[in-house]
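thought: fold this chain, then report.
action: predict
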Amino acid sequence: MVDTYSQADLDLITQQAGLNELGFSDQQRLEAALRDGWKLTPATLAHKITRGRWIAAKHLLHISTIVATEVAKGGARIILTMPFRHGKSEFLSVNTPIWFLET
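observation:
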């Protein structure tokens, strides 16, 4: 089982989080944390604790990044609306609270 992101995923996460302005060494540290840090976001934790059975779709990776960023800022109030059967309930009701308690 490999718990890593592809380079395209790393680029997408960096762009979405607004981290393009980081210096080279800071970007290297961020990429290392993304590769190795399974507690970094709710999606990485869910993938790890389910031993790879839970695989995040791209939209859930995007949501996971937003959730982790907003929680880190403090006072997060996030409302998510999506069509049914897109994974939002399991992700936000099961995986996100576990991630929050672990971090």
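thought: worth noting. The two ends are 23 Å apart (CA to CA).
final: tokens above.
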